[in-house]
Write a structure and sequence with these properties.
Number of helices: 2
CATH architecture of the largest domain: Sandwich
Helix content: 10-25%
Number of strands: 8
Distance between the termini: 58 Å
Strand order of the largest sheet: 1-8-3-6
Largest sheet: 4 strands, antiparallel
Number of domains: 2
Structural class: mainly beta
């Protein structure tokens, strides 16, 4: 570095110092055993689990794919120092609504009735028409909306995990919220997505 000008030499030293500092203070959360063996059971968590650093008040969202006819166990565990964690699981659904497409006037025939409200017929067996009237004809249609349905909330659930065996492959959203605190603490959080094949010879999308 003898041929490098002093200014550039200082820049290089600063960059190297920043890199060393980042490596030194960063945590590899995937190396930490946040969940006990009893909690993990015999599920395979290597596919879609996520390990991140979170601070008090942070929110983290993870989208995963759950394949049909497979058994899943999903839960969230964090280091004790960051306090309580709440997590929600949302599943996409289609919502169908019946809505008015169009309202337009329509001319219809008016037929003669007896005092009891039954139609009267002529000798040919046809209803006896006595005039015309205009009515409002309503045309209905069906609208489809994509929504996210809340299927699990750790705050009010009986169990600290969610078990699922979807009938079809679908995209699921996991949202993790760390409680607010007076003093901000950063710690590791694990979003565990465990998979267990219900039938190793059966796989559907």
């Amino acid at each position: 570095m003898n041929n490098i000008q002093p200014t550039y030499r200082l820049i290089i030293i600063a960059i190297l110092t920043l890199i060393v500092t980042s490596v030194g203070f960063g945590q590899n959360c995937s190396k930490k055993k946040l969940a006990s063996k009893e909690m993990r059971e015999e599920y395979d968590y290597r596919g879609q689990s996520l390990f991140v650093e979170m601070a008090n008040g942070d929110t983290t969202t993870l989208k995963i794919v759950l394949y049909s006819k497979q058994n899943y166990k999903i839960f969230v565990v964090g280091e004790q120092k960051i306090g309580n964690l709440e997590y929600e699981i949302h599943v996409p659904r289609k919502k169908f609504n019946r809505v008015v497409k169009e309202v337009k006037p329509k001319t219809v025939s008016v037929y003669k009735k007896d005092p009891d409200g039954f139609y009267l017929y002529n000798n040919n067996g046809n209803r006896i028409e006595i005039g015309k009237e205009t009515i409002q004809d309503t045309i209905w249609t069906r609208e489809t909306a994509d929504i996210e349905e809340l299927v699990y909330n750790s705050r009010n659930s009986e169990f600290p995990y969610w078990l699922a065996t979807p009938n079809k492959t679908q995209l699921v959203t996991i949202r993790v919220i760390a409680d607010e605190a007076d003093k901000i603490i950063i710690g590791c959080v694990g979003l565990y997505v465990g998979r267990e094949y219900s039938n190793i010879y059966q796989f559907r999308r």
